UniProtKB/TrEMBL annotation, chain A:
The lineage of its organism: Bacteria, Pseudomonadati, Pseudomonadota, Gammaproteobacteria, Lysobacterales. It comes from Rhodanobacter denitrificans. Its EC number is 7.1.1.-. It is found in: Cell membrane; Endomembrane system; Membrane. Its main location: membrane. Belongs to the complex I subunit 2 family. It is a multi-pass membrane protein. Pfam families: Ndh2_N (PF19530), Proton_antipo_M (PF00361). It comes from the Bacteria. GO terms for molecular function: NADH dehydrogenase (quinone) (non-electrogenic) activity; NADH dehydrogenase (ubiquinone) activity; quinone binding. This is NADH-quinone oxidoreductase subunit N. Keywords: Cell membrane, Membrane, NAD, NADP, Oxidoreductase, Plastoquinone, Quinone, Translocase, Transmembrane, Transmembrane helix, Transport, Ubiquinone. It is an enzyme of class 7 (translocase). NDH-1 is composed of 14 different subunits. Subunits NuoA, H, J, K, L, M, N constitute the membrane sector of the complex. The gene is nuoN.
From TrEMBL, chain B:
It comes from Rhodanobacter denitrificans. One of its GO terms (molecular function) is quinone binding. One of its GO terms (cellular component) is plasma membrane. Keywords: Cell membrane, Membrane, NAD, Oxidoreductase, Quinone, Transmembrane, Transmembrane helix. This is NADH-quinone oxidoreductase subunit J. The chain crosses the membrane at residues 6-28, 35-52, 58-82, 94-115, 148-171. The keyword Isomerase does not apply. NCBIfam families: PRK06638.1-4. Belongs to the complex I subunit 6 family.
Length: 484, 215
């Protein structure tokens, strides 16, 4: 039976459920003139959740509800950054939503439910909790993508996302059922990830287990957006309202890393010699497709979508190393990517205005002459994404490559370096357009830049530089989480 | 007759019907027929669950899916007006590829599961009997509210998100829609709406005559 202690362990999650329900009620009873207040309440809700996660963190990993929920340092770090980036998305989203008359309680509530899905997913200790957390996140995301219903692209993107997401969930569930079946042959059937860890040693159906593993890796690949399961990424990134794209590019990636870690290491750790090669193949294909196709894109959102695919390749490089060092590097990379993605999309959000979407790379022409500060922030984001030395993105890349080399996968590291150099081209092209092209009439720049957005965005982009110069504590935190 | 053998025969019979019905869902030209085939798929899947001694789940599948969801589905499909022939274009062209993929997957699955493995009982002892309970439903209820309490609550949250999303996506102010505003209707004053104009009385024949052009 659940005890009071179980509830204390899940306090941040329970708090967030209560807050989301309260926001729904507030939205229903508020006068339209008071609606803007919801924005600040939602941000406060997320900040309090961060406090609860950090303050209530137990010194050692604990489980609740009979192993269904695990609260350890890995979950803590991922939760803090997922909540933090979502709060940033809220700040960046306000001018965009106000201009397009999309400000509604549903946007904030669905976002909070999505974050809740992330928190449950990264803390999952059981196949059932993994699946349900993932569905909570995915369902909220589908609805968020379709929120701007009157435009042409969002409904199309939402349908594509929904159909492919449902397919991926089906694959994952099918794989889980096989793993469950294999655990029942030769022992008691179990869904608990900790008990599944050594299933390989006693099961009488190892082929069934491996088959289930393949299906689960396919599901993980879909959720990460790794090639060849990347088909939904460009269309969803382009079609979704930009704030939602920002969320999918940041919080969802942290969740996908958490899910991969829970399923593969906690659940299938004994089979690492089987899955690390699968991940390596996914990594190589993602690096190739992401970097090569990004070169020919003219739409900035689509280009960043392909860039995501290549970054997921680097993340998989760390996971494929299949050891604490690799996981720490991959988590460091996921955090780094989330911060860079939020910054890059944040500049795009700062440059849009009513009736004008800053989407094409050509829209940035001559940005330096119109707004040197915005151009500089975008430059930081692009250089960090490309992995130019003093910035955050560089160290993240170095760490995953190092982890791959230590795991005796030198070839994989070489492939990673080659594609990092190819990838430089399209990031630098954006910088060239901003600094060396002549500005065009009616290009990007907001008439009245939103003050909170400017401040938070500046801090966000400058943190890429600051963390690039002083990345030790964050890395130490990540390594500590994996017992290094 | 050996009960084990009877069970095996039943399993293959229901399994065959399930697969055949699922295939006809995606191959039948008429969408109403396809929905009916889907009903059959669910029904035979429920029979398979009965064989596995999951009586409650089997009945829930029939009551919820066949009884409620599929009937709703049938309503929707009957109301759609789709040009069936257009949907089928290109089907023959892609059929060989699809068939090859399907055949390969089938062979893999059969090799994986192994027909012989079916003869032994896959799962361990019946959890209901092991827990000292008389039937499956009792055990399911007990497990849902103790061991699986957290997943149960998360599932409730997912349903909440479904409602919120449905409301957010469908309930909206349309600019081209016409609404009645009761409060404005009550507040309206007859003097604002109807204006009584005083006119001098005119005889009809006089007015028509005056409009005719003068010769």
């Amino acid at each position: 039976m659940p005890t009071f202690n179980d509830i204390l362990i899940l306090l941040p999650e329970f708090y967030l459920v209560a807050a989301a329900c309260l926001l729904l009620l507030l939205d229903a009873f508020m006068k339209p003139a008071q609606r803007p207040l919801l924005h600040w309440i939602s941000i406060a809700v997320l900040l309090v959740a961060i406090y609860l996660v950090v303050a209530g963190q137990p010194p050692q990993a604990v489980t609740a509800f009979g192993g269904m929920f695990v609260r350890d340092d890995v979950a803590e770090i991922l939760k803090v950054f997922a909540l933090g980036t979502t709060a940033m998305v809220f700040v960046y989203a306000r001018p965009y939503l106000t201009d397009r008359k999309l400000v509604s309680g549903e946007f904030y509530t669905l976002m909070i439910f999505a974050v809740l899905g992330i928190m449950l997913l990264v803390s999952a200790g059981n196949l059932v909790t993994v699946y349900l957390g993932l569905e909570l996140l995915s369902l909220s995301s589908y609805a968020l993508v379709a929120l701007n219903r009157d435009a042409k692209l969002p409904p199309e993107a939402a349908i594509k996302y929904f159909v492919l997401g449902a397919l991926a969930s089906g694959m994952l569930l099918y794989g889980m059922s096989m793993v469950y079946g294999a655990s029942g042959m030769g022992g008691t059937p179990t869904l608990d990830l900790a008990q599944l860890h050594n299933v390989m040693s006693y099961t009488t159906a190892p082929t069934l287990l491996l088959f289930g593993l393949v299906f689960m890796v396919v599901g993980i690949g879909f959720k990460l957006g790794a090639a060849p399961f990347h088909m939904w990424i460009p269309d969803v990134y382009q079609g979704a309202p930009t704030p939602v794209t920002t969320f999918i590019a940041s919080g969802s990636k942290l969740a996908a890393f958490g899910m991969a870690y829970r399923l593969l290491d906690a659940g299938m750790g004994d089979l690492s010699q089987h899955w690390h090669l699968m991940l390596a193949v996914l990594a190589v294909i993602s690096l190739a497709i992401g970097n090569l196709v990004a070169i020919v894109q003219t739409n900035l959102k689509r280009m960043l979508a392909y860039s995501t695919i290549s970054h997921m390749g680097y993340l998989l490089l760390g996971l494929a190393a299949a050891g604490p060092e690799g996981y720490a590097a991959a988590m460091f990379y996921a955090i780094c990517y989330a911060l860079m993605g939020v910054a890059a999309f944040g500049v795009m959000l700062a440059l849009t205005r009513a009736g004008f979407e800053c989407e094409e790379i050509a829209d940035l022409k001559g940005l330096n002459q119109k707004s040197p500060w915005m151009a500089f922030l975008m430059l930081l984001a692009m250089f960090s994404l490309a992995g130019v030395p003093p910035l955050f993105g560089f160290w993240a890349k170095v760490l995953v490559l190092e982890a791959a080399i230590h795991a005796n996968m030198l070839w994989l590291a070489i492939v990673g370096i080659v594609f990092a150099i190819i990838g430089l081209y399209y990031y630098l092209y954006v910088v060239k357009v901003m600094y060396f092209d002549k500005p065009v009439e009616g290009g990007a720049l907001q008439a009245q830049p939103d003050q909170p957005l400017r401040v938070v965005l500046s801090l966000n982009a400058l943190s890429l530089l600051a963390l690039g110069l002083y990345w030790g504590p964050l890395l130490a935190w990540c390594r500590h989480a994996f017992g290094l | 007759m050996n009960p084990q053998l009877l069970q095996l025969i039943c399993f293959y019979a229901f399994g065959f019907v399930t697969v055949a019905a699922a295939l006809s869902v995606i191959t039948l030209k008429n969408s109403v027929h396809a929905v009916l085939a889907l009903v059959l798929t669910f029904f035979s899947a429920a029979c398979l669950w009965l064989l596995l001694e999951a009586e409650f789940l089997a009945l829930a599948l029939i009551v919820v899916y066949v009884g409620a969801v599929m009937v709703l589905f049938l309503f929707v499909v009957m109301m759609l007006d789709i040009d069936q022939e257009k949907l089928r274009e290109g089907f023959v062209k892609f059929l060989p590829v699809g068939l090859i993929v399907a055949a390969v997957m089938l062979v893999e699955m059969l090799g994986l599961i192994g027909v012989r493995a079916m003869q032994t009982k896959i799962m361990g002892a019946d959890p209901a009997l092991a827990a000292g309970m008389t039937n499956n439903t009792e055990w399911l209820g007990h497990a849902l509210y103790t061991k699986f309490l957290l997943p149960f609550e998360i599932a409730a949250l997912i349903l909440t998100v479904g409602i919120v999303a449905a409301v957010a996506l469908t309930l909206r102010e349309r600019r081209d829609a016409r609404h009645e505003s009761a409060s404005q209707q009550v507040k309206v004053n007859p003097r604002d709406r109807v204006r009584i104009v005083k006119m001098a009385p005119v005889r009809p024949d006089e007015s028509t005559a005056s409009q005719e052009p003068q010769p």
